[in-house]
Amino acid sequence: MTNFHKAPATYVGEVLLNVQNLPRSVDFYKEVIGFQVLEQTAYKASFTVDGKTPILTVQQPNDVAPKQVRATGLYHFALLLPSRADLGSILKHFIDKKVRLQGASDHLVSEALYLADPDGNGIEIYSDRSASDWKWHGTEVEMASVALDAESILEEAAGKQWTKLPNDTKMGHIHLHVSDLKEAEEFYTKVLGFDVVTRYGGQALFISTERYHHHIGLNTWNGIGAPIPAPNSVGLEWYTLVYPTDKKRIAAVEALQAHHAPLEKINEAYFTQDPSGNRLKLV
After folding, report:
1. Which of 106, 161, 176, 216 is 20 to 30 A (C-alpha) from 222?
2. What is 11-282's CATH number?
């Protein structure tokens, strides 16, 4: 299968979340989701699938507040499994552990399960159909949300025992609440160079590089003009955009400067935020 999460693509690499109770979150992400702990302190833990690379980090701020509703921020982060059999294996694992799912959908390009962590941070776990089976209409890829064939997915697992997230699991994409879809589209396409690949009316759009079905989703389902959550609120702290070369990353930084977007350099990473306050780390 084509890999849309390496050069020359620009893609989401790691997500940092605020949580209310670190031990509770560590237990959830290890026992329910199947991550390995890479590093842990009293107030922060990073998770990995390959024993080397962090793809999710959670932290417990001193004055952390519960997740703010009807605000911008995280809708969900999405873990991309290597195969449909892996999706069937984790579905069987969720059934055995009586994990409550929030939804399950066939998106034509992918098949997905939805749930939330103990703080209400949204999670999608999915596997892609072969890119050769995706249907493109010009620059837009055909996507939908139809009933998932769970029985077929479970059969695909063929009794494969779930023990942990496979080593090839990736941060497939991130989906964000924004306050203004037009502003968000301009920022991500004209400034950061993403392409719109699907639109859902005037409320959501999906963007990517290298003709992936989406690396980032954007929606106004929390309301047009939704406020930015408090800095100490449960939810998204930042996510990384991984550029294929430093030249391309610097070009993105220069475009941000020309757009007068907020920009801060910390060590070797550049931080910015979209017009809805969602924070990005450019690496």
Report:
1. 106
2. 3.10.180.10
